[in-house]
Design goal:
- 3 copies of one chain form a homotrimer.
- With 350 residues, the first copy, chain A, is an alpha+beta fold.
- Chain A has 2 domains: 8-122, Rieske [2Fe-2S] iron-sulphur domain (Rieske Iron-sulfur Protein, 3-layer Sandwich), CATH 2.102.10.10; 137-333, Naphthalene 1,2-dioxygenase Alpha Subunit, Chain A, domain 1, CATH 3.90.380.10.
- Chain A contains 5 helices and 18 strands.
- Chain A has a 7-stranded antiparallel sheet, with helices on one face. In chain A, strands 2-3-4-9 form a 4-stranded antiparallel sheet, with no helix packed on it. A 4-stranded antiparallel sheet of chain A has the order 5-6-7-8, with no helix packed on it.
- The radius of gyration of chain A is 22 Å and the shape is globular.
Chain lengths: 350, 350, 350
């Protein structure tokens, strides 16, 4: 699996890990046991007992420690075995990997790379379920497809005109005109004005408005999108640059989405969406989540079908189009970051 | 997969491909999108967009063209891309394979080999659902088994005495005596007289008759069988050669069957069966289809079990018997046709 | 698959093979057809017809013979083909393997190794469903796990304190103190006294008793366990050696269990359990079977999860603990027996 390791992957919604009950997740093919101990502390351990490889996620929380429930070995949060029933001596190498873990924006994030390099400042600034300014709803989908294919999908919104013609009623503009794409240190920024329009199904207004939507898409696969409607003429006044969202009228929404590679050809897709509290209410949130449920099923159907075709193609080759600029920039960035990690690992090994 | 390519494979019943709705089929492991355009024209395209390998069978018919509904590339019936949304230039290599396709005898046939060699005259003379002289019913079964094993089954009717002892009540004759087998340019002919008999369940008569059944089995795996009953003594009068079917009394039926290799260890088995309009009616057709449903399930159960045993056998070897003569002739023919195709491909490559 | 071949594997409960109806079983990856002929004789044949590899277990019993129901070849109990319909000559090599088979203690046992070495005296002395002294109930579980992992589980009862904390309410003693382990020629013996106790859920008594439990675990994976309760002080009187079970008071039970490797990562687990007729009744048997159903599901959940972790671990390594002494002795014995078999096979080949 070819993904950046020195970054934060979304593992769970916060509410999925309840105190005292271990949970299991697989990221980049690595099984991980996650638990919230008695003190509230979150721990992420390699999900594989050193004794006979039973999963620790079937274990029992004892304080901030985790006991394997096959033959009783007890693990401290740093992964060290601290008790072996029936045996006095504990070998120092009786230790599993402990992953840096953080809870932020309503998600639980795990750092899959070098623990020394884990930097909480690199957690993308998602607007989460717990954000006081937005009224958010959420969902998740399990994909039988490589995470990279979902990333590609989210990087090229020209698919809205086709895949989501029914759900989002996106119209032909998304395919006919290319958006403004700007490289970022860890991803790309997408910006698009739609002028003098009644909007698609997610931004319908009773009178024509100028619509602006922008998202950052950053490693490993986090999409952070803000959309809003503005009086007609705003796009021109801004010279088609990004507007000041405090001047939005009628509609202002945010969606945070995360693609996590579970294992080869398996991925989990997390999303939340909702209006700014000043602009919308629970009914608008429910409308957005209803459309998202429909639209994200359309994506899943297409992408899993694409994966099945790729799987039976001896030497799969793609033919990029004009709309692939963002995909190309992002995948080139990912490739260079992976190269960089490889160099660092080799350098440290010397 | 070791099958002849320069021949016509049954892909669908005619009624399965409705105007304006693309269908998908896999033959010899190759995914194919089939659609009936606005003019009624049938097209079969490689089911794999040149852009990102999404299946065109999830696409939208536009006139006689097909638009990929992932990012909107439009394909002409010859496989050439003729529109890329958001992009002016279309590379000439933006093209997928287009397969020769024909509709005949109630089936849609696809030519899997060299398009230059596609010859509609090579479509076997099936009696189909649309035949005015016969009252036909139909069915299909999906097999978790290699198509070759189904062909072997259909080439050796000695299995009737065992596999179909209950359904067809075939009696021991099919195993005890070998039929007349005659090689054909693209298969074999099977002929058998059963004299002075009340017949098996598909040919039951109130008084003893002479029964004659004959089928051609031709590449890639098409069985065309005619059966009838004749006054006692007819077999002897004919010197046990084929009778004139216009002299049949009481019973005259036809069944067309097609075995299509989907992919490794996957096959689809199509069949229709019914009486000649002069000899039978809808009730007789329904009786035949009822027996066929029972009997073809018996075959499927046996052949899929055989496949599972083959799969766990390190070096599977068979031991042919006297009844395997037709199997041996046919498989030798297939082998020589495949050799021939390989030679031609090599010659053309030089 | 790395298992001893010169030993008896449990293939069926006796009642699973009814006269005249062939049954199928896979052991060590080898498909086997088992039938009880007209004379009552049991036969185990390689489940693979020499003709086209159809399974003989779909065949028809004729006397003590078995006819393949694909094209009618007839097999004698020694595996020799004795009839080929439509053909006069039977090649002498038309023969499948015939396995030594025995019925004893309510189970049908198959010898997977050299038939010359098959010795019914090596069948472990199980107390079976048909034992007149015990009131037995039975069950079976299919595992998606290597049989070896189930054997490991049964060899180390320290897991009772964790896996079966709820069902058997085993308490911490099983993990805190190691039992007496004695090597046997074909396995190990486990013995444990629990003194002055009201017992776990399977041996609950109204007054404190001394509990004794002992089992032999022998190749290929047969567990034979006797448990009983004795007046307090008996353990000390016996100097903590095995007691005379005729002096048991209140409780005396036996359980026979068998682990059969079906194929890679597939196993079947057979078990029966019940009280000695003098000590218990049908109600006690049903209580034991109820607890076993709960407990053996706990094992299965843990072991299948362990297998899944092993499967995704590039180089799985275990770290034995003090409780692994029995596991280590047994697996070393198995390894030496396999080595021995290999040497004998090589010697015979010279």
């Amino acid at each position: 699996m070819n993904y950046v390791r020195n970054c934060w992957y979304v593992a769970f919604w916060s509410h999925e890990v309840v105190q005292g009950t271990p949970a299991s997740v697989t990221i980049l093919g690595e099984p991980i046991a996650v638990y919230r101990g008695e003190s509230g502390r979150l721990t992420a351990l390699e999900d594989r007992c050193v004794h006979r490889l039973a999963p620790l996620s079937l274990g029992r929380c004892e304080g901030d420690r985790l006991r394997c429930m096959y033959h009783g070995l007890l693990y401290a949060p740093d992964g060290q075995v601290v008790d072996i029933p029936g045996q006095d001596i504990i070998p120092p190498h009786a230790k599993v990997r402990s992953y840096p873990i953080e809870e932020r924006h309503g998600w639980i994030w795990i750092w899959m790379g070098d623990p020394q390099k884990a930097d909480a400042e690199l957690i993308p600034a998602a607007v989460g379920l717990d954000d006081p300014d937005f009224i958010m709803g959420s969902g998740a989908l399990d994909y039988d497809a490589e995470a990279e294919l979902i990333n590609d999908n989210l990087l090229d919104f020209s698919h809205l005109s086709y895949v989501h013609a029914d759900s989002f009623q996106s119209g032909p503009e998304f395919a006919e005109r290319t958006p403004r794409i700007t490289p970022l240190p860890r991803g790309i920024r997408y910006e698009r004005w739609l002028e003098n329009t009644l909007g698609s199904s997610t931004r319908r207004t009773p009178v024509p408005m100028d619509n602006f939507m922008t998202y950052d898409f950053v490693v490993p696969g986090i999409l952070l999108m803000r959309s809003g409607t503005f009086p007609v003429g705003t796009a021109a006044q801004c010279e088609h640059q990004a507007p000041d969202f405090s001047r939005a009228e009628r509609i202002h929404t945010f969606t945070s989405q995360a693609v996590t590679p579970i294992s080869e050809r398996k991925a989990r897709y997390f999303f939340c969406w909702g209006p700014h509290r000043v602009y919308g209410d629970e009914a608008q949130r429910d409308m957005l989540l209803g459309l998202a449920a429909m639209a994200f099923d359309e994506d899943k159907r297409m992408i899993e079908a694409q994966q099945r075709i790729i799987d039976i193609t001896p030497t799969p080759r793609i033919m990029p189009t004009a709309h692939d600029r963002s995909v190309t920039i992002f995948n080139r960035l990912v490739k260079s970051m992976i190269e960089q990690e490889r160099h660092e690992t080799l350098a440290e090994a010397r």
